[in-house]
């Protein structure tokens, strides 16, 4: 499962928002599919640039993630590296592209159901649900000591 972090949850939410607002979406297009739209958000590259980079590798995002090599620095490896820096594993990348993570599907509004990888609304609800799950994970792992909560601010410092 992805490493929960603020940047990833925000990127997933922003991608869902852009899709809701009419961003280009075409599942069979490297630059405007599920991962392509997420990459547009995190890299600020256009769908055309992402497509050009993706075509230096062979296959869909799932195969590209599995074939990733952090040493070569080919354009496609730089794209996969951006997804991994965000906290995604190759399995997460596959699940984002195909909407298949059962833990995400089980948290969907209305309960578990299979989604279609090439249906815009399904991608939106999957990304939003995944972001909410990651955010819950973050919140559940926040620890604050009682001493920190009870500590009085130091009011002896002079501001000037």
Largest sheet: none
- Helix content bin: 55-70%
Number of strands: 0
Multimeric organization: single chain
Nearest-integer average pLDDT: 86
The dominant shape is: globular
Give the strand content: under 5%
Structural classification: mainly alpha
Order of helices and strands: HHHHHHHHH
Distance between the amino and carboxyl termini: 49 Å
Radius of gyration: 19 Å
Spans of at least 5 consecutive residues whose pLDDT stays below 50 are none
Number of helices: 9
Key structural traits:
mainly alpha; 160 residues
Question: How would you sum up this structure, described in words?
Answer:
With 160 residues, this protein is an all-alpha fold. It has 9 helices and no strands. It has helices at residues 6-20, 34-43, 47-54, 61-66, 75-85, 90-98, 102-105, 120-140, 146-150. Helix 1 (6-20) packs across helix 2 and helix 1 (6-20) packs antiparallel against helix 8. The chain is globular and about 55 Å long. The N and C termini lie far apart (49 Å). The relative contact order is 0.16. The mean pLDDT is 86.
Brief digest:
This protein has 160 residues and is mainly α.
Which helices and strands occur, and which strands form pairs?
Elements lengths: L5 H15 L13 H10 L3 H8 L6 H6 L8 H11 L4 H9 L3 H4 L14 H21 L5 H5 L10
Helix pairs in contact: 1-2, 1-8
